[in-house]
Amino acid sequence: MSLVTIQAGDHRLVSSVTNDGVNELQLKPKDSVTAVIKSTEVVLVKGESGALKISARNKLKGQVTSVQKGEAMGLIAVAVGSLQFGAAITRQAIDEMQLAVGDTVTVVIKATEVMLMK
Questions:
Q1: Residue 73 scores a pLDDT above 80
Q2: What is the pLDDT of residues 40-64, one digit of tens each?
Q3: Domains of the chain, earliest start first
Q4: Within 13 Å of residue 23, how many CA atoms lie on the same side as its CB?
Q5: Considering the entire predicted model, what is its pTM?
Q6: What is the DSSP string of the chain?
Q7: Which residues on adjacent β-strands are paired with residue 104?
């Protein structure tokens, strides 16, 4: 496995890619790539996350821009600078966290869930 660091504006994302994947994509420094993350793989933390010890490599502070609630699930849109993330989470989690537009949250994503396209 290889860890690939992506510079996205002022933010960095880390992706864990197989060595075969790195070779197939012919990845090298300064290459342009697109990071793809399924909304079901995005975790949100509300409140102070500084003391939180977590193995996920990607922790990005942002602002909630949209809250869509369904019967069982919802979709939370989060802006992290110029980056946009969607988090598909349960309706119960939305209600328990009292998520609302304008809230500050931390987007958490494991490096293994960041797919790369070139």
A1: yes
A2: 999 999 987 667 889 999 999 999 9
A3: 2-117 (2.40.50.100)
A4: 4
A5: 0.92
A6: -EEEEEEETTEEEEEEE-HHHHHHHT--TT---EEE--GGG-EEEES--TT-----SEEEEEEEEEEEE-SSEEEEEEEETTEEEEEEEEHHHHHHHT--TT-EEEEEE-GGG-EEE-
A7: 63
